[in-house]
């Protein structure tokens, strides 16, 4: 689940917990029409992101007859039916430039039904994505967080590992970006990515902004970890060496803890803003981290909440590479069961703090007091 500042669900029995974690192959009921040779084409126009608006156009392979498109409901890393359906606006579906009537399912509001005419093999779909709910702003005048699942509909009842997407984004002028999506080719403000399956796309958010900095933290054999920073103000990117130095030890400590790596290149995506709520969401080869404007310049902030990035990085092993079977679903409509969330989140909260301590983000002499505080806090809840 997302990292929540102040919550410390410490778990004893790591060996038992790891034994319970498994990756179960997901089963699909319907063959995906968006194949690697005929992928869905997704074009996201983020030129108005500074005012909280994305415009999305995508072409999705279909078959004639009754066809159902769905909007992601159960979001990985959030462990619940949190897909922000209310952020979808102005939906339009066309076939060969002719508008088609669509209906929302009477029971499942995340499903949209359309009758595909004979001879039609793809639909063109457009809608707007409203980025700034009052309780979850995703953009400011200088920074934006793009979650791809919010900008598309996909074929119902498929396994998302079998459906392929070729995505692109148009950035605001003079904005930079960061993402774990592979094979990026930038031309002006447009960035095109290679084909990936839908699971990988949704698992690879993109941050972008006017003020950006990319800091290599660790380099290995044809791999690296990178800190991608995006701030509302340029001075918030001026990180003191005393704060940055421990982060350059995080990868080494994580590899020592887990004994192996399974990611190619890992991106710590971090937005620095007092407008965007503080948060952290894990992904396989990246993490969507959100801190206050002074998060990377304030020693006090680091001493209290310095395990944000280490928590999400640890999730790349615990929660992504290995995941409780009941949280492993074939698509984003299938409900997740949270009976083993204590492994996914509880143990990982502890391990994220261990990494922060071992890396030097947390001071060893202060950590016992912090641990005592957390136990006292939990005892009162």
General description of the model:
The chain is an alpha+beta fold. Helix content is 20%, strand content 31%. It has eight helices and 23 strands. A hairpin with a 2-residue loop joins β15 and β16. The longest helix is centred in the C-terminal third of the chain and has 19 residues, at 341-359. The chain starts with 13 loop residues before the first helix and ends with a helix.
Q: What attributes does this structure have?
A:
single chain; 381 residues; alpha+beta; 9-stranded mixed sheet; 8 helices; 20% helix; 31% strand; disordered N terminus
- Percent of residues in helices comes to 10-25%
Gross morphology: globular
Mean pLDDT across all amino acids = 92
Number of strands: 23
**DSSP strand content:** 25-35%
Report the end-to-end length measured between terminal Cα atoms.
Answer: 20 Å
Number of helices: 8
Low-confidence stretches: 3-26
Write the layout of secondary structure elements.
Elements: H1 14-20, E1 40-45, E2 53-61, E3 65-70, E4 88-95, E5 98-99, E6 102-104, E7 111-116, E8 122-130, E9 132-133, E10 136-137, E11 143-146, E12 154-155, E13 164-170, E14 176-179, E15 185-187, E16 190-192, E17 196-197, H2 198-202, E18 206-209, E19 211-220, E20 223-231, H3 241-247, H4 250-258, E21 265-272, E22 279-282, E23 286-291, H5 299-305, H6 308-315, H7 341-359, H8 367-380
Parallel strand pairs: 1-13, 20-21, 21-23
Antiparallel strand pairs: 1-2, 2-8, 3-7, 3-12, 4-5, 4-8, 6-7, 9-10, 11-18, 13-16, 13-17, 14-18, 15-16, 19-20, 22-23
Gist?
The chain is of the alpha+beta class and 381 residues long. Helix content is 20%, strand content 31%.
């Amino acid at each position: 689940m997302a990292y929540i500042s102040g919550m410390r669900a410490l778990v004893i029995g790591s060996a038992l917990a790891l034994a319970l974690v498994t990756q179960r192959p997901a089963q699909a009921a319907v063959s995906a029409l968006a194949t690697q040779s005929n992928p869905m084409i997704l074009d996201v126009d983020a030129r108005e992101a500074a005012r909280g608006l994305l415009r999305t156009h995508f072409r999705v392979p279909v078959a004639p007859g009754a066809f159902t498109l769905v909007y992601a409901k159960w979001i990985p890393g959030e462990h619940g039916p949190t897909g922000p359906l209310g952020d979808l606006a102005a939906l339009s579906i066309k076939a060969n430039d002719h508008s088609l009537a669509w209906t929302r399912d009477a029971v499942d509001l995340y499903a949209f039904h359309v009758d595909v005419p004979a001879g039609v093999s793809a639909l063109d779909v457009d809608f707007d994505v409203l980025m700034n709910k009052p309780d979850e702003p995703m953009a400011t005048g200088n920074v934006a967080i793009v979650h791809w699942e919010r900008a598309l509909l996909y074929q119902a009842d498929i396994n998302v590992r079998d459906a392929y997407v070729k995505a692109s984004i148009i950035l605001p002028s003079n904005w930079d970006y960061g993402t774990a999506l592979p094979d990026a080719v930038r031309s002006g403000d447009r960035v095109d990515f290679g084909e990936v399956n839908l699971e990988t796309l949704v698992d690879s958010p993109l941050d972008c902004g006017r003020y950006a900095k990319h800091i290599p933290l660790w380099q290995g054999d044809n791999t690296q970890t990178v800190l991608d920073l995006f701030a509302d103000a340029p001075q918030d990117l001026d990180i003191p060496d005393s704060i940055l130095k421990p982060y350059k030890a995080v990868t080494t400590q994580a590899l020592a803890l887990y004994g192996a790596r399974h990611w190619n290149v890992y991106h710590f995506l971090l937005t620095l803003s007092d407008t965007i709520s503080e948060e952290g969401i894990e992904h396989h080869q990246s993490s969507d981290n959100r801190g206050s404007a002074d998060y990377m310049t304030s020693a006090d902030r680091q001493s209290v909440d310095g395990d944000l990035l280490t928590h999400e990085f640890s999730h790349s092993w615990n929660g992504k590479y290995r995941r409780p079977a009941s949280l492993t679903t074939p698509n984003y409509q299938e409900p997740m069961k949270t009976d083993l969330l204590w492994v996914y989140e509880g143990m990982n909260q502890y391990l994220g703090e261990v990494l922060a301590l071992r890396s030097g983000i947390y001071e060893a002499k202060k950590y016992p007091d912090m641990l005592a505080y957390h136990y006292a806090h939990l005892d009162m809840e």
